[in-house]
Backbone:
């Protein structure tokens, strides 16, 4: 499971970095989105990958920490998702405004001289 | 300790949050109410910050042990709940933020906030993010407050129109989003290795890490450092800074003066907490030192190369960041208090200078907004394209009505501008009698006396950098000053008391800082001492909120 998980993060990050370095604003926003997905997965993975472990202490499990998944990274991921979503939406608006004002979707607001 | 005093530390965060939300509900036409809320909030914040500052000093030693106040949000004890920590450094920071915020807000109501739907709300949220970032004692909480202040700053940077402004804001947002990703990755790695995000709790656990995990932890700390350095405008991560700051409208640029310093603050805070532990301690300052030197150099060259005043001020921000990072990187403990002195001076200076820039622009372009054509350099930003500027240039300011927000034109406005400009130049270049000189002098004196980990030559390189950058600043600013004030004035500038007063206020504060260098330095010394005793910090944080939790009890 760790290999699959790590590969997924690696692919997302690689694609994200490549897209961020592209000249079109839409590519940049997709790259940022992929990067933040990779980050969210990474944060989640930092709580260690465990199967069949609830994050909340229940009556039957008792207080043994080994029986539970770490809830903190899950809370962190939730916060990070919300913040990432909001900032991506904001970036999208700016992107559209630039498209409207500059008439091009190049990140510099003008086409490079051919 | 009464209830108000007990909840005082959370006021600088809650008050602007509530005020920002309230401002959204008040209709645009009810200007008096809006301004009342905005100013009321800022004044409460400033009062709270000043009180907190007083409580951390020795004069109020009976209130808090060691001058460190801990506010456990929701009364959860420290390593599990999030705490706000008020020591001398953070109290100093929120006071500076409050002072700059108030001055900038007064300036902005002259007319900059006019075509403004959410200006005041965003401004309150910016203040909330700043105060929160300075007060929090938790890494993830620091990230959240960074995002709050960045989100507000994105909105503020976009004020006004023009493709250039939108483009630069886009770059600014993209860079900061990537930096946020790095910040999150750093936090995740640190949590994964140490199992806590409380800054005080981190330290005790780092020392107990196995060597393999220690490497991972250092990588995480490095990622955090990169994110902070992006904020601080360190070379080579600062190419967004001059463009963004120089096209933002003047009051926004002035409040951004505090924004870059958040990065420096985070480096200082986390760096000193970590420095107690030897393995990373030897590497960290050295890297900071070289990055700082490169930043100082980049800022200096930028100042010499640019032709546009706002851009020049933006490069002076980079220069001061570089100076601070280099000095921190020396690893001399006695340098820290001059660093704080320089920190305070440079925040006030940059804010005043950006505010001044907004007024001097007017003397050049006058009633002809198209005059930017004669400024072909890439820094030549069409400020004239901003609706607020056009509104000013085309219509007489009195057209806004007779309410007292529009003050009387100041006689001899050009003389006032010139005088303020000279003061700013003296501050940036570090010439007496203004505190820029005191700061740089004490910094060099402490650096030359202290024993540095970076080697003997490093101190002399720093001295050359400080003096050389000051000299370059004089050249660049004198050149632009001659163009602006002797050759450039095409029409009498009309200033408003509301715009002039904040600049004069900030400069007067600088003068006061210079005149009261002795007591101020005493405070900075105390702040630096407590920074370099992280054990006190840790004891206060972990001990104050319901008994210290032994490290072993914390679940991994």
Residues:
């Amino acid at each position: 499971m760790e290999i699959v998980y790590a590969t997924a993060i690696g692919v997302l990050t690689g694609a994200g970095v490549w897209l961020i370095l592209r000249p079109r604003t839409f590519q940049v926003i997709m790259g940022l989105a992929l990067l933040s997905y990779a980050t969210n997965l990474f944060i989640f993975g930092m709580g260690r990958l465990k199967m069949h472990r609830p994050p909340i202490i229940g009556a039957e499990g008792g207080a043994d920490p080994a029986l539970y998944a770490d809830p903190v990274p899950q809370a962190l991921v939730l916060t990070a998702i919300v913040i990432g979503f909001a900032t991506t939406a904001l970036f999208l608006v700016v992107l559209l405004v630039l498209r409207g004002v500059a008439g091009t979707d190049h990140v510099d607001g003008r086409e490079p001289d051919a | 300790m009464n209830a108000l005093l007990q909840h005082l530390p959370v006021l600088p965060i809650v008050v602007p949050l509530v005020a920002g939300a309230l401002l959204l509900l008040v209709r645009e036409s009810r200007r008096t109410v809006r301004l009342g809320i905005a100013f009321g909030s800022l004044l409460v914040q400033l009062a709270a910050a000043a009180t907190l500052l007083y409580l951390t000093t020795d004069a109020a030693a009976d209130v808090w042990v060691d001058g460190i106040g801990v506010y456990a949000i929701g009364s959860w004890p420290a390593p599990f709940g999030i705490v706000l920590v008020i020591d001398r450094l953070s109290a100093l920071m929120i006071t500076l933020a409050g002072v700059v915020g108030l001055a900038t807000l007064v300036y902005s109501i002259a007319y900059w906030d006019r075509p403004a739907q959410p200006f005041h709300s965003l401004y309150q949220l910016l203040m909330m993010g700043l105060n929160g970032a300075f007060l929090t004692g938790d890494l993830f909480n620091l990230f959240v407050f960074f995002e709050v202040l960045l989100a507000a700053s994105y909105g503020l940077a976009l004020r006004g129109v023009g493709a250039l402004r939108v483009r630069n804001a886009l770059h600014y947002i993209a860079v900061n989003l990537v930096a946020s990703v790095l910040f999150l990755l750093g936090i995740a790695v640190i949590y994964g290795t140490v199992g806590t995000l409380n800054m005080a709790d981190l330290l005790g656990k780092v020392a107990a890490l196995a060597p393999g995990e220690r490497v991972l932890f250092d990588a995480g700390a490095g990622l955090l450092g990169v994110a902070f350095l992006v904020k601080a405008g360190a070379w080579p991560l600062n190419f967004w800074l001059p463009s963004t700051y120089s096209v933002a409208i003047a009051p926004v640029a002035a409040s951004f003066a505090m924004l870059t310093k958040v990065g420096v603050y985070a480096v200082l805070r986390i760096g000193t907490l970590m420095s107690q532990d030897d393995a990373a301690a030897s590497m960290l300052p050295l890297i900071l030192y070289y990055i700082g030197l490169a930043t100082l150099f980049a800022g200096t060259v930028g100042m010499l190369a640019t032709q546009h005043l706002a851009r020049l001020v933006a490069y002076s921000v980079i220069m001061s960041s570089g100076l601070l990072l280099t000095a921190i990187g020396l690893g001399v403990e006695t340098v820290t208090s001059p660093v704080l002195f320089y920190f305070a001076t440079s925040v006030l200076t940059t804010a005043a200078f950006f505010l001044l820039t907004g007024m001097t622009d007017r003397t050049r372009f006058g009633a002809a907004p198209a005059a930017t054509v004669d400024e072909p350099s890439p820094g030549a930003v069409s400020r004239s394209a901003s609706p607020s500027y056009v509104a000013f240039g085309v219509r007489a300011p009195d057209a806004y009505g007779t309410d007292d927000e529009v003050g009387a034109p100041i006689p001899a406005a050009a003389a006032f501008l010139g005088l303020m400009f000279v003061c700013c130049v003296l501050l940036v270049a570090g010439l007496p009698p203004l505190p820029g000189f005191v700061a740089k002098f004490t910094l060099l004196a402490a650096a030359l006396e202290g024993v540095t980990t970076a080697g003997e030559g490093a101190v002399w390189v720093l001295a050359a950098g400080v003096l050389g950058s000051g000299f370059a600043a004089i050249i660049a600013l004198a050149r632009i000053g001659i163009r602006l004030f002797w050759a450039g004035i095409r029409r009498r500038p009309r200033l408003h008391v509301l715009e002039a007063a904040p600049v004069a206020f900030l400069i007067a504060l600088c003068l006061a800082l210079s005149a009261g260098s002795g007591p101020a330095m005493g405070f900075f010394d105390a702040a630096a001492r407590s920074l370099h005793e992280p054990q006190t910090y840790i004891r206060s944080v972990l001990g104050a909120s319901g008994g210290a939790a032994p490290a072993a009890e914390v679940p991994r």
In short: Residues 2-102 of chain A form one domain.
